[in-house]
Amino acid sequence: MSSYLKVITPTNLATEKERFFNQKDYSPQLQYDWSSETINTFINDSPKGKTLIDALLRQDSEAITHSAAEFFDVKFRQEDIDFAKELISSIPVQQNGTAYEYADLMRRKLSDLNIDYTVKIVDEHGFQGRPDHEKHVLKLSKYLHLQFLTLDGITNHELVHIIRAVNGQYNNIPISEDYLPTEEGLACLVQDNFLTEPTPSSFQHALEYLAADLSRTASFREVYNFLIQHGSDPENA
Predict the structure, then answer these.
(1) Would the pLDDT of 198 be above 70?
(2) Regarding beta strands 137-141 and 118-122, do their DSSP bridges make them parallel or antiparallel, or are they unpaired?
(3) Which of 42, 61, 147, 216 gives a 20 to 30 Å CA spacing to 199?
(4) How far apart are CA 23 and CA 26, in angstroms?
């Protein structure tokens, strides 16, 4: 199910990020791996994603917004937007854990659970942690930038993915078509302590939710400025 990541992760992220930071009026020109092999693998893994692929290839912004909302099961409800605004009303203390601290903590928790996964720090952009359940490997980007995400929270987030994968493999449970909303939703709930009170992680997720809502009508630079205005540093934004 990770094939969608190849579709949505820019291949020139590092160079475009540098240009964006160096030129105040520059709009990123992001490139993607939309080869036939990548697209066919994605559609075979996720048939309901075909409408998203068609919209992306046509560069139809309205269709992309609609089909992405359907594929990722994202809804922008006013009550959720209002709650997210409450969560970002005060900026929490920054966390700023490193990839090496993250790796050490994850290895300890995997060992405690007797789960045989290898944790590797890699020289790659575009993600923080990315598990490969077939190879039993968790890759961590050496460029990860947590700022408001706690080490415990982000470790527990990835553990949800790993535990569910191990359980599914052991009990021969097929991957659900609703993998993304159920898997990511559960992982974020665990990471944010079930939102019983504002936490650094819930602040970050609320800010991302509001930024995603804004991105439907605003430019890349406007979304970036919104994040900066609400406490994100340039790297996090």
Answers:
(1) no
(2) parallel
(3) 216
(4) 5
* 169-177 average pLDDT score: 86
* pTM recorded for the entire structure: 0.82
In this prediction, residue 185 carries a pLDDT of 84
- Residue that is written with structure tokens 């099961």 in the block: 73
DSSP class of residue 177 equals: T
| Residues β-bridged to residue 122 | 141
Secondary structure E strands in the chain: 118-122, 129-132, 137-141
Structural tokens at position 218: 């605003």
Q: Is 49 helix (H, G, I), strand (E, B) or coil?
A: helix
What 3-state DSSP class applies to 139? strand
Torsion angle in degrees (nearest 10) through CA of 37, 41, 125, 194: 170
Rounded Cα–Cα distance for residues 73 and 129 (Å) = 22
**Is the pLDDT score of 1 beyond 60?**
no
Q: Which two tokens stand for residue 181?
A: 């909303």
94-103 pLDDT per residue, tens: 877 899 999 9
Extract the tokens encoding 160. Answer: 């949800």
Closest by alpha carbon to 234, among 18, 25, 31, 27? 18
Q: What pLDDT does 214 receive?
A: 95
